[in-house]
Write a sequence for this structure.
């Protein structure tokens, strides 16, 4: 007989969220509280399988009594806390951050960013062409995935996923300082010569498409990538006995990429090279 340890129930904390009383478990963040009541908060650097990086500053909210705005993805709720997510101060901050990101970075493949900008009236073009960052060339040095750092917002999610939070390969890190800061392999070596094991977990957490499947990149280049035509089927990887969950993304009867459910108790969204990239034989014609 197996005894499952369920632990003690967490104490509920009550706070006021945009004028409404909300109760969430102790230890939850403001973002968790917003999600629990169906309130959408824009965020780019937050990942549900990673520790908050507090890098993008898009999810900032106003907390009564706080001198500055606070990041909702990492700020824990407190009893009696009064939070405003749509105040004039919050909207102005969100607008400015999105404008700065949009003027300096290619956000064309970032999900939801257009609706976020529309909601807060952001206009990145108002800074003029001089504000644009010089585009970096797309790096294709392996047959599995592409690095397009012109879309990188330096959220550190790929570094965390490759480092001590998941893979422990430490193949990539932040190089340079200030305006020269960038994601790079050790000594900027080509990816095949680095410590990369091609698990693709960095692709899984990238919020802007700076890292993408080679197949996805090619289809975007030739104009045939269409997510509205794609179906998703979750199955079990057959390469070994671990039992990792795979979600197959299929377009025109062809697998175009593979992800893994973040809520899976086995993978938590992570895979190895075989699970994420070893599907070409399925459609080898």
């Amino acid at each position: 007989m197996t005894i499952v340890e369920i632990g003690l129930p967490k104490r509920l904390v009550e706070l006021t969220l945009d004028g409404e009383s909300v109760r969430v478990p102790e230890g939850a963040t403001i973002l968790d509280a917003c999600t629990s009541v169906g309130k959408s908060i824009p965020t780019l650097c937050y990942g549900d399988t990673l520790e908050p990086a507090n890098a993008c500053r898009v999810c900032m909210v106003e907390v009564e009594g706080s001198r500055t705005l606070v990041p909702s993805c990492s700020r824990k709720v407190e009893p009696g806390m009064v939070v405003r997510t749509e105040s004039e101060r919050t909207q102005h901050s969100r607008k400015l951050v999105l404008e700065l990101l949009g003027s300096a970075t290619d956000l064309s493949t970032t999900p939801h960013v257009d609706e976020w900008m529309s909601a807060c009236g952001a206009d990145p073009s108002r800074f003029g062409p001089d504000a644009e960052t010089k585009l970096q060339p797309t790096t294709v040095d392996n047959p599995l995935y592409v690095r397009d750092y012109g879309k990188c917002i330096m959220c550190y999610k790929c570094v965390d996923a490759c480092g001590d939070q998941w893979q422990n390969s430490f193949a990539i890190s932040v190089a340079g300082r200030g305006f020269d800061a960038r994601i790079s392999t050790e000594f900027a070596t080509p990816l095949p010569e680095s410590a990369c094991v091609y698990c693709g977990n960095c692709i899984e957490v990238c919020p802007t498409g700076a890292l993408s499947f080679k197949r996805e990149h090619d289809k975007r280049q030739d104009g045939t990538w269409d997510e509205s035509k794609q179906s998703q089927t979750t199955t079990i990887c057959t390469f070994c006995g671990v039992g990792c969950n795979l979600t197959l993304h299929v377009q025109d009867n062809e697998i175009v990429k593979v992800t893994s459910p973040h809520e899976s108790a086995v993978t938590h969204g992570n895979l190895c090279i075989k699970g994420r990239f070893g599907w070409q034989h399925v459609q080898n014609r």
